[in-house]
Amino acid sequence: MKQKFRQLTFVKVDDKMPEHMSHFDKGFIGIVEATYSQLYGGNDITSYSLYKVEDNKIINNISWYDESQLTELPKQDRLKAEEMIEAYNLDE
């Protein structure tokens, strides 16, 4: 796999964003939804769409963070990520 993070990976978003992304949320825990390439095709495997997590619940879906702005968390739980995404999608 060429991309850095797999779908359903828990990541930490950097606390600081570059100037052109100053309006983006930062410093949160997220779950990787997919890369731009996975969602829309093409070669962009470094831009990620994330689910924003707060208090063990997904509260938003935000795109496009660069892989350099993400850090994989040591504890991973793909089943929990799937359950959280399902709950978010059914609540909307």
List the helices and strands and how they pair.
Blueprint lengths: L9 E4 L15 E7 H5 L6 E8 L2 E10 L3 E3 L5 H14 L1
Antiparallel strand pairs: 1-2, 1-5, 2-3, 3-4
Structure description:
It is a single chain. This protein has one domain (10-91). It has helices at 36-40, 78-91; strands spanning 10-13, 29-35, 47-54, 57-66, 70-72. The model has no long low-confidence stretch (mean pLDDT 96). It contains two helices and five strands, in the order ββαβββα. It has 92 residues and is an alpha+beta fold.
- Give the spatial strand order of the biggest sheet: 4-3-2-1-5
Low-pLDDT regions: none
Structural class computed from helices and strand pairing? alpha+beta
What is the helix content? 10-25%
Specify the overall morphology: globular
Number of helices, where a helix is a run of at least 4 consecutive DSSP H or I residues: 2
Strand content: 25-35%
The overall strand count is 5
As for the number of domains, it is 1
Output the radius of gyration: 13 Å
> Quick one: biggest sheet?
5 strands, antiparallel
Arithmetic mean pLDDT: 96
Topology as H/E string? EEHEEEH
Ends distance:
32 Å
